[in-house]
Amino acid sequence: MLRLFILLAAFFGFSGVTLGAFAAHGLKSRLSTEYLAVFQTGVHYQLIHALALLAVAALTLHLPGRLLTAAGSLFTLGILLFSGSLYLLTLTGVGKLGIITPFGGLAFLAGWACLGIAAWKAQG
Length: 124
What we know:
Layout: H1 2-27, H2 33-59, H3 66-92, H4 101-121
Subcellular location: Membrane
Transmembrane segments: 44-63, 70-91, 97-120
GO cellular component, one term: plasma membrane
């Protein structure tokens, strides 16, 4: 899982920076201030959880186990659902996509919980 989580962290970090720049320069004149802020929220959470994935990858070297795998998987799912739904919502204007966003937030929370439990169970 080490390699996969590093690859995912690199992908989400790269694409997060790209999407942030795209919003700041390419979407500024096309989206309302409110939708631009929603898009930037997606970018913000994507970048935070790209770093979390990188941390999970590093921790798998010292704390192997299913909890870290679950944490990394949940962070990935959270990025896709939370940030992805916000991007689609702002770019398409389909407000019903916002119903997906909380499921991404729950995935983030579950990922952080798995990470905490893995630390709690760690020896040393």
